[in-house]
Amino acid sequence: MKIVVTGGAGFIGGNFVYFLLKNHAEDFIICYDKLTYAGNLETLSDAMKSKNFKFIKGDIANRDEVYKMFEEEKPDVIVNFAAESHVDRSIEDPELFLRTNIIGTSILLDACKKFGIKRFHQVSTDEVYGDLPLDRPDLFFTEKTNLHTSSPYSASKASADLLVQAYHRTYKIPATISRCSNNYGPYHFPEKLIPLMIINALNNKKLPVYGKGINVRDWLYVEDHCAAIDLIIRNGKVGEIYNVGGHNEKTNIEVVKTILKILGKDENLIEFVTDRKGHDQRYAIDPTKISTELGWTPKTKFDDGIKKTVDWYLQNKSWWEKIISGEYKNYYAKMYDNR
Ligand code: NAD
Ligand code: DAU
């Protein structure tokens, strides 16, 4: 199969490219990526050496570029990771999120309609369900939970999901959707909680924890997410949504303290800062459907995954040092100075 991975120069898309190259030597993989601030060709440097891989620079929200790629490559499968993905950036400036996440997805769907496709898979998020209260640990997101978004980011992802469902029903596009919880692992862009805390701790900088640090996220090692998507594109039922998560709920402060402990750093680096606007309290996925229907279970326990992740950042300093010494400095100052 010829599989186009949009957003494959980013965190999860990059890991997915490596997952496919490792597990499906019979497939040909194309990464189609605009290379925004979050896209990094260094992430794909090993993939570039494979005869089964090709990189194309392109924008999912540019119709001409997308149609050209479809005409020339004739993909069998599209896995759409390409997105603006950071909630804090969406709160500062929503418009780009609408362009990439909504218009971009609709253009990919139009291309599938025009040129044909065997499978279109939309990589969505548990954030489309909104949040759960902290005092109801018995509640979980299922595929039937209502959409109830909080941030411009999650609203844009929910809009994209609705378009995918509409194109499936109206034009019979063979589409699937996955909604995953928070990922962590190698190549995670430094703006997100786990890499930000690892990098700041290594640099003996303050660790900015929003509010009281009691918000809960359901962490999944990125390779387990990749395995779930791989199963869905091969064995998942067209028109279906699959929630992906591994019952690994942690408060933010627990995660930050675990990182400090692994690195042997002092907890006095922690600084509680002004909360995120509209901050979602708790995410928690019920993965019963994907487990029972497709046999998926996560392999990596949080204690092991977080150690592997910290180790990766220790072993790959040049990857993140280049990022944090560039434009990222301005972003960091804008978001965190005087917060
Ligand atoms: P990321 O920000 O690390 O990477 C996004 C990639 O998309 C980058 O390579 C970027 O260059 C590319 N991109 C952005 N706009 C583009 C455009 N217009 N055209 C082509 N490429 C473009 O994101 P991530 O964390 O890897 O997330 C990937 C996907 O998974 C997103 O759709 C996100 O909503 C979803 N998701 C993420 C998580 C998570 O915990 N990170 C969890 C669930 C779902
Ligand atoms: O649930 C899936 C989602 O997970 C994905 O759809 C998003 O693309 C991804 O970015 C992630 O969203 P979050 O907002 O949960 O992730 P983030 O790493 O930004 O924040 C995790 C938690 O940590 C959240 O409660 C906010 C908090 N936080 C974050 C940062 C960056 C802090 O306390 N301090 C920080 O500096």
Task: Summarize, please.
With 339 residues, the chain is of the alpha/beta class. It has twelve helices and 13 strands.
Low-confidence stretches: none
Which percent bin holds the helix content?
40-55%
Evaluate the radius of gyration: 19 Å
For the secondary structure, the number of strands is: 13
Measure the end-to-end span: 49 Å
DSSP strand content:
15-25%
Number of helical regions: 12
Globally, the shape reads: globular
Strand order in space, largest sheet: 3-2-1-4-5-6-11
Largest sheet: 7 strands, parallel
* Mean of all residue-level pLDDT scores: 98
Bound molecules: nicotinamide-adenine-dinucleotide, 2'deoxy-thymidine-5'-diphospho-alpha-D-glucose
Please provide the ordered H/E string of secondary-structure elements: EHEEHEHHEHEEHEEEHEEHEHHHH
Structural class: alpha/beta
